[in-house]
User: Fold this.
Amino acid sequence: MKNRMFTIFLTLLAGWMNRHQQDVIEYLEAEIAILKDNLGGKRIRLNDKQRIKLGTLATKIGPKGLAEICTVFSPKRY
Assistant:
């Protein structure tokens, strides 16, 4: 009985955390869209530190994941 209640509690907690993460992602996507609109098609120049940080984070997501979310910067190498 205790094990089942614990499992239900963990399931509810995981669901709440997933919903919260989705809310954060939706907010950040909207924020990016607004910032992108304000740029008016101008190119943003990144310094080496910024490129390294984005590159490190991009490897965790992978190419398919980046294709779904990448809206401002392109991880392609030239």
The chain has a mean pLDDT of 81. DSSP finds two helices and no strands in the chain.
